[in-house]
Model the fold of this input.
Amino acid sequence: MHPYTQGRWRNPANPNAPGSSRNPPPQPSVFGALPDPYRSRAPKPALIPFTFTSFRPNVLNCTVTGPQSRVYFRITTDTPTVGYTVFFDSAGQPVTIIEWRNHPVVEIRGILSKRSTSDWLPLSQNGSHRQMEALGKHFVWVPGGEYIFLYAAGVGQPQVYAQVSRAEDSVTLELTAEAIQIGLLEICVAATFLLQCGKSID
Done:
C-alpha cells in the first residue's frame, strides 16, 4: 500500500491520489491512536534545519543543505544507473543507495545493512505511524498537523528527535542536537527522502 494513503498520509507527489488534497479536511489527532506516551508532546527542543532543495524537478534529484548553507548531500535518481537513487556526501562519496524494485531496498554505508524499505519503515496496522529501527533503538514517525515527528519509542515522556515539513519546492528536516550527536543525520535524511519521494515503499 502507498505510504501516504494509509492513515491519510499526504502524497505530495500526486495530489490526486487517495488521502491527498490541496486543503485536506481536518483530521483527528493521530496521538489518540498511539500508546499513552505519544498523546502529550514533550517540550520542543532547539532544532537544526536541513533542507532538501534545488529540485530537478522534484525531491528525487535534489541537494540537502544544512547550517550556513553548507551542502551535506546530493541526491540523484536514475543517474548514473537507472533504477537507483544515490546519496553522495560533501566529498562526493556514496553514502545511501536505494534500489527501486517492486519492493525497494535501502542501504546506508556503515549504518544500515541492505534491507527492504518496508522492513525498515513498516507502517502500523492502523496506518497512524511508521516504525524505524536505528542505532539499536526503536523510533516512530508520526504525522501531526503540518509535520511528521520522529519520537523515541517506549514508555515515559515522549522525546522528539526530528520533524519534517514540506513546502512547494523544498522539504525541511529539523533535527535536535542530540539526534545529530548520536548519529541520526544520515538515517533521518534517508527516511525523510523515502517518506517524501512519492514512491511506494511498502
Notes: The first strand starts at residue 47 and ends at 53. The CA atoms of residues 56 and 127 lie 30 Å apart.
